[in-house]
Amino acid sequence: MQEFIIPIAQSLNLRINQVDVVLQLFAEGATIPFIARYRKDKTGALDEVQIGRIQDEANRLKEFHDRKAAIIKSITEQGKMTDAIQSKLDAAETITQLEDIYLPYKPKRKTKASVARENGLEPLSAILSEQKNGVDPLKEAAAFINEKVLTAEDALQGARDIIAEQVNEDAEIRATMRKLFEEKGYVISTLVKDKDAEAIKYKDYFDFSEPVHKIPSHRILAILRGFLEGFLRISIAPDEETAIHLLESKAVKSNNASGEQVKKAVKDSYKRLLQPALETELRTALKQQADEEAIRVFAENLRQLLLTSPLGSKRLLAIDPGYRTGCKLVCLDEKGELLKTGLIFIHEPGKLAEAGATIRSLIEKYKPQAIAIGDGTAGRETEQFIKSLQTGLPVFLVNEDGASVYSASETAREEFPDEDITVRGAVSIGRRLMDPLAELVKIDPKSIGVGQYQHDVNQFRLKEKLDQTVVSCVNSVGVNLNTASRHLLAYVSGINTGIAENIVKHRNSIGRFTSRKQLHDVTRLGEKAFEQCAGFLRVKEGEHPLDASSVHPEAYSLVETMAKDLGVPLPSLIANDELIGKIEYKKYIGGNFGEHTVRDILQELKKPGLDPRSEAQTFEFAAIYIIEDVKAGMVVPGVVTNLTRFGAFIDIGVKQDGLVHISEISNTYISDPSEKLKLNQHVKVKVMEVDAVRKRISLSIKQADEKTTPVGKTIKPNVPKEKPAKDLSGLAMSDALSELKKKFGNR
Hints:
Layout: H1 5-12, H2 16-27, H3 32-38, H4 40-43, H5 48-77, H6 83-91, H7 95-102, H8 112-118, H9 122-130, H10 137-142, H11 152-168, H12 171-184, E1 186-191, E2 207-211, H13 217-228, E3 232-237, H14 240-251, H15 257-306, E4 316-320, E5 327-332, E6 338-344, H16 352-366, E7 370-374, H17 379-388, E8 395-398, H18 403-407, H19 410-415, H20 421-434, H21 436-440, H22 459-477, E9 479-480, H23 486-489, H24 497-510, H25 527-533, E10 537-538, H26 556-566, H27 570-573, H28 577-581, H29 595-606, E11 635-644, E12 647-651, E13 658-661, E14 682-691, E15 696-700, H30 733-744
Parallel strand pairs: 4-7, 7-8, 9-10, 13-15
Antiparallel strand pairs: 1-2, 1-3, 4-5, 5-6, 11-12, 11-14, 12-13, 14-15
């Protein structure tokens, strides 16, 4: 990797020593979170994004050099390597350029040109390529007639096949044509005949055209999906006449009979070889670019979702709503352990009073501090029923995307082998409210529902990026060593699935960890793993007061020296702003502790183990429940559920998210919705258009209010106020049913 240091530094505009240090740390087994958090003095305080780019660029350069070496080996073994070819390869900067140089020497299946060469027509192709005046191609071709070449015209055709292949394999010509495709090409899609009805969701692309350099990633992915499903035909190319004219200007040197033969060969080369090859290459490149953009959007959305505000360690009553099968209830303790299950029916006549009594009984016995309700099917109705009981507890609607995936997973079966999937789902909903990060890591990120075309992109690259995102989030928050599941532990720096399982086994055998030092006793957790993970694992109320903080054990002696110099015991220094303010940080810089490390330690001592996430806040939807309740012109509160390159999806409480197009997010043009919005942000939106049949709701933020509301604030809907919710539990069956019908109709 040493040969990559200077190119990476130049490419990323970093200092050479920064890149050198990062690559050395990677070679030693360090992770991105560890380097970013605990090796700032060595890297010059590079953040995770910069460190990740160094890693990506190093991988790209390695791939390039490996491919270059393979090409040199192949050409050399063929006995065709020359100084000129070597110089071209040395000057190449991309794999595409390498492949263009290699193309004439690349082993290939039988082609028209190779057959022509076997038939002895290469000398004729050379004569035509010279394009000399006075040469009669037919006369020249007659000399090449044999048992395999029956006529002079057959000979000319074979010679043209050779010239066509030579034009196609000319690196300079390919570079010129590639630039034309990129700058003047169009992506064109048309409907496959007789597919109108089946392809209706691709209606926007039935007769579509957009310049290659302008088309956004989401449209490329949509068109390619329609193509792969057999509904659309696509082509990616510039104007054919323009392309052939440019190609002729490069290959046709004379306006004579031989030149006409070359002109025919050039046209054939473009249509048969160059255009299909460059179209495939450009389609692949556009797909890769679109993949990276979609993956980046997905990763950013996932980061925001994983860092959603937690309610914290609170006793909960969690509800997985349902119509016919009822609402599954679970009571959880502060650690998320299952205490009790139950079932109520609020959508059947005669069962409301019983449901209300069940809820009150559970609250009385298990004393939950909040109520969590899944926001899926029957979620809003269940929320209204619970609120009508006037329990005095805060009620949260919890995003349950992926909960059903967890419920049926091997992980859920391991945790709750004796419970059915509805109980597991309710537990997951409750735990998501307590700590979204700890619960969501148990689910494949692709099932969480915050991506854009996630099933169409490169799945290996998607998993790699999403795993990096989860690792980053887990380590930025920190993990409680005594409560974390093996799934959460597996994302901690330096810990893999096997070590995570061993940590849990060791924890079970000793009861609980009382010190970070006990990690040394975990099977297969060696010194390097301890170095990488220790700072991210928290031991609350442990033997050492710093075990509950993000201060790394390697710096404990430094903090102890600080306390000693102040003449106070170590516990007295922690979280004591007055004492910390007396510390002269420069005094402690030296050896393994630079300025960045010392400053970070002092900052951590002020608020040790602080969770960077804010606490969850309740939210109130407007009094609308189904799409038929939504009318153009309404201004209502909503929650951002997904961000894409073309806009944001907003939940306004009617089981169908509305779309705020990017043009309706801000009065100032933005290219990325995440510049203005964040996932789970509470916003006020104006309803612009409703299509109940197609289940589409168009919304606007900029027309509702110039400013969005900060996360955690509740907006009161700009609709007529509801009457205070009634307590339905004590009503007669007919009266209670009547009340619900008023609110929800006959569904």
